[in-house]
Amino acid sequence: MTSPAKTIALLTDFGYRDHYAGVMKGVIAAIAPAAAIIDITHGIPPQDIVAGALALRHSCRFFPPRTIFVAVVDPGVGTARLPLAIETRTGARFVGPDNGLLWPAVDAAGITRIVELLSPRYRLPYVSATFHGRDIFAPAAAWLARGVALTRLGPPVKKITQLSLESGIKEGAQIVAGTVIYVDSFGNLVTNLDRARVDRFVARFHGCRLSVRIRRRAPIEMRSAYGDAPPGAPLATFGSFDLLEIAVRDGSAADYFKAGAGMPVTLRAER
User: Fold this and answer.
1) For the whole model, what pTM was predicted?
2) pLDDT per residue over 137-189, tens digit each?
3) Where are the domains of the chain?
4) How many CB atoms lie within 10 A of CB 81?
5) 218 - beta bridge partners?
6) How far apart are the first and last CA of the chain?
């Protein structure tokens, strides 16, 4: 046994209409009634592993050090993909499917141990082929919160599926191209271009005008905040993820540009 954790944080693509997220919380409460359960979100777009990985990666650092994160965006549920629990150097533990969803968060936190969730004692008695969130992941998190050692949940695993949020970024002589990887509920188009990369790009072309384009539309002006643009005007800015995003003042960039995840975004230095 280890010292009990106080917080379990949930992130899924289950939505808010159905009972799925609530049942997971019920399973946790039945096993570890003293644990506080926090919903990060259940609004990840269905089967969007990249969006889930992004939200998890940028949320987990704001939680207490020994938080147990349960992330379920799992289009491969019931297949050969492994159910995992992971310990990290920060003290946080992560529970979820081995499909890349956990990788950006656990890589940043520093992996110390990985196990496959195979022990029948720490699952529900019946395991559905379609609801591992309820039958495998929620019980595992609850038992961890009770103080059960990670190693008791199953055999060790040496490596997990990796997922790069920077996949597809291209840099040229006077251009850097990225991709929209997340669309939030306001319609803001979040790209995989982080501030450090953009700052390096700008430094290379000091004195040049920076243009941001999507769908070959007119250049979009960089702004420090949404409110710096006129009402209804598009803008580019760095949001709370510290990633470049395209927004529309008092509107939806997704609607304005008819764009979504996978759409290319280009920064160009112009004399």
Assistant:
1) 0.93
2) 999 999 999 999 999 999 999 999 999 998 889 987 788 999 999 999 999 99
3) 7-153, 170-270
4) 16
5) none
6) 63
Q: Based on C-alpha coordinates, what's the Rg of the chain?
A: 21
The class of domain 7-153 in CATH terms is: alpha beta
How many C-beta atoms lie closer than 10 Å to residue 29's C-beta? 15
pLDDT tens-digit profile of 40-98?
999 999 999 999 999 999 999 999 999 999 999 999 999 999 999 999 999 999 999 99
**DSSP assignment, residue 45?**
P
Identical fold for domains 7-153 and 170-270, yes or no, is no
Distance CA 45, CA 76 (A): 15
Residue 30, number of CB atoms within 10 A of its CB: 12
Q: ∠ at Cα 57 (4, 210), nearest 5°?
A: 160
Cβ–Cβ contacts within 10 Å for residue 240, how many?
9
Q: Where are the alpha helices (DSSP H) in the chain?
A: 20-31, 49-59, 103-109, 132, 138-146, 195-204, 253-257
Q: Is the dihedral of CA 239, 71, 159, 64 positive or negative?
A: positive
Q: What is the CATH number of domain 170-270?
A: 2.40.30.90
**Which is nearest to 60 in space by CA: 86, 92, 31?**
92
Helix axes 138-146, 20-31, angle to 10 degrees: 30
Question: How far is residue 27's CA from residue 141's CA, in Å, rounded to a whole number?
Answer: 10
Contact between 82 and 97 (Cβ < 8 Å):
yes
Identify the residue whose tokens are 């899924």.
12
**Rounded Cα gap, residues 72 and 49, in angstroms:** 9
- Give the DSSP per-residue string, 71-120: EE--TTTTSSPPEEEEEETTS-EEEEETTTTSHHHHHHH-EEEEEE---G
